[in-house]
Amino acid sequence: MRDFDLLQPQHLSDALDALAQNDSAIRPLAGGTDMLVDIRAQRAKPDVLVSLQNISELRGITRENGTLKIGAATTIAEFLKHPELTKHDALRYAAYVFANPMIRNSATIGGNIGSASPAGDMLPPLLALDAHIELVSKNEARVMPLSDFFLGPRKTAKRANELITSIQLPVISYQSPVSSLQSPVSSAFYKLGLRQADAISLISVAVWIQRDGEKIRDVRIALGAVAPRPMRAIRAEEILRGEIFNEMNLKESARIASEECSPIDDLRASANYRRRMIAVYVRRMLEQAWSKTQ
Amino acid sequence: MQKKTILFSLNGEPREWSVYPNELLLNVLREQEFLTGTKYGCGIGECGACTVHINGEPILSCLTLAIACEGKEILTIEGLAREGKLDPVQIAFLDQTAFQCGFCTPDMILMTRALLNEIPNPTEEQVRDYLRGNLCRCTGYASIMRAALDASVLNAHRSVQSNEE
Ligand SMILES: Cc1cc2nc3c(=O)[nH]c(=O)nc-3n(C[C@H](O)[C@H](O)[C@H](O)COP(=O)(O)OP(=O)(O)OC[C@H]3O[C@@H](n4cnc5c(N)ncnc54)[C@H](O)[C@@H]3O)c2cc1C
Ligand code: FES
Ligand code: FES
């Protein structure tokens, strides 16, 4: 494997200092499940890696002022265990279908976002839950909606001297702590692959829905692997917001979602197939999430 | 590139290694410790052959830097039998002859061990799900499934016995 030096800071400030001093050949290393594969394939050519593994400030899950704050170094395995995280059906299901148990023990949420693959499995659920992302450099800290963070395939708004430090979810995205059956809010996720286990998404769909009687008070729909970046289906959401939850509205929303995305043909599936599946699964996920609300 | 000395526990014994930053745990285990039960299959996370336990959890040693193991407890297949006594999972794999070429056997056994630590009485579906990142090119998985399910029964016996002792 390529030669590189490795820094293993204990404190966030040391990691940020290192990133501030060096040029672009210095890169963060979290679980390494993308980075080490990329180095071996010579897609990434760092001279220095800054390991985030020993930085406790990047771990932990806390509730602060109506926000659930998830440390960027939280592993995907944690999303199947931590009581604050497993409340969100879309996130939990995405973690459940993510890779396999070994990868889940290493791979982090910050790495999934940092890689910015259009097919990153945790990204549509986070978009549907209106996640914000905290970016910190030596001199500045900023928080932005995750939907503004992704610019294109593997392109993000992150500057070379910045780290993703946390992901923040508004408490309104919460399902009821007692039982998701008694909540006006729910979410759902589906990943369609070529086989059931350990497959790259052909498409994925995440929805979040807030119910008000027979009406949809608010809704968010996010799509994976059907555009240069994980995306919100804004127009499909608008069809539903404030409307009655019925067959006609669902169908229309699903149709618009399939028009809003811009999938490509590749060896796994055709663009046309992907579009059709978006319509099918947007509708199914809306139904699934709705059925869990009250 | 500079070597760094790390201290950790390997199969219950304290160890000290001097490693380069870009050395993978897999290669050090095989080439420095001659623990060749951990296999090099694909090197990119796709096959599961390089599975070891770190602090009790299964990870892929082909995607883990050796240098990151400072202070950790590493368990490879060679360390699973204790004081000459096979682990119940190993006994079940022998009983069911859950291998042909044997290349996947170390990882299948370590994964089954990790599964039983998490879920002592898994259903068939839970076994399939847990082993989904571990490939076998020979057995067709049926004997591995039987062995994993048998192992949960043997394992429960073993725990009862050791409580009685
Ligand atoms: C066999 C296999 C199966 C996989 N299956 C899936 C799957 O089912 N679904 C899926 O979505 N992905 C999958 N992946 C891809 C990968 O596991 C995920 O993208 C994972 O979340 C990456 O996290 P990591 O911690 O390993 O990141 P790393 O590899 O350490 O880093 C990834 C990128 O993010 C940057 N980065 C990491 N942390 C930060 C931070 N805090 N701040 C700024 N930048 C950061 C790094 O510099 C790097 O560019 C798979 C990979 C493999 C090898
Ligand atoms: S060698 Fe590590 S997963 Fe194949
Ligand atoms: S026994 Fe040959 S790969 Fe499983």
Describe the protein's architecture and organization:
The complex is a heterodimer of chains A (294) and B (165). In chain A, a hairpin with a 4-residue loop joins strand 6 and strand 7. In chain A, the strands form four sheets. In chain A, strands 4-5-10-6-7 form a five-stranded antiparallel sheet. Chain A has a four-stranded antiparallel sheet with strand order 11-12-13-14. The longest helix of chain A is centred in the last third of the chain and has 21 residues, at 271-291. The radius of gyration of chain A is 19 Å and the shape is globular. Chain A contains eleven helices and 14 strands. Chain A has 294 residues and is α+β, with helices and mostly antiparallel strands. Residues 175-181 of chain A have low confidence and may be disordered. Chain A folds into two domains: 5-173, 2-Layer Sandwich (Uridine Diphospho-n-acetylenolpyruvylglucosamine Reductase, domain 3); 179-291, Enolase-like, domain 1 (2-Layer Sandwich). Chain A has helices at residues 12-21, 35-40, 83-86, 89-97, 101-106, 109-115, 123-128, 146-149, 234-240, 247-260, 271-291; strands spanning 5-7, 26-29, 48-51, 61-64, 67-71, 132-136, 141-145, 150-152, 155-156, 163-170, 185-192, 203-212, 215-224, 231-232. Chain B is an alpha+beta fold and 165 residues long. Chain B has two domains: 4-79, Beta-grasp domain (Ubiquitin-like (UB roll), Roll); 88-164, DNA polymerase, domain 1 (Orthogonal Bundle), CATH 1.10.150.120. Helices cover 36% and strands 15% of the residues of chain B. Chain B has a five-stranded mixed sheet, covered by helices on one side. Chain B is globular. In chain B, 43% of the residues are buried. The mean pLDDT of chain B is 95. Chains A and B meet through helix 2 and helix 5 of A and strand 4 and helix 4 of B. One FE2/S2 (inorganic) cluster binds at residues 99-104, 136-139 of chain B.
